[in-house]
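Q: I have 114 residues here and want to know how they pack in 3D. Can you give me a structure?
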Amino acid sequence: MPVDKEKDERSSKPREAIFCRACGNAVTSRDEKIAVGGSHAHTFFNPAGIVFELGCFRRAPGCRNAGRPTSEFTWFAGYVWRFARCSNCRAHLGWFFEGRDSTFFGLILANLQE
């Protein structure tokens, strides 16, 4: 059976991990970056006036979601959110957004390290 060398190289190529800045846990990877509303990065503020710069990611296996889904003060119309915490140290890394047809993580870029 012939071997597809190019496929083997792609599958064995290490994904470039993105880590929790607090503990070094692998949270997601560059391959998981996505655009939501036309952009990967967004700047928002919460009701307390704290400003967050978020990056959107398809998956974040190093996160655990916490809290009940809510639409209160959502930054993305049609989505409910829950907190996303580091699965290792429980640091707040951002939010998990769930819409009718899609889900994604909005992670606080200052809390990540590439």
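Q: Anything worth noting?
A: Residues 5-12 form the longest helix (8 residues). The domain at 5-113 is CATH 2.170.150.20 (Metal Binding Protein, Guanine Nucleotide Exchange Factor; Chain A).
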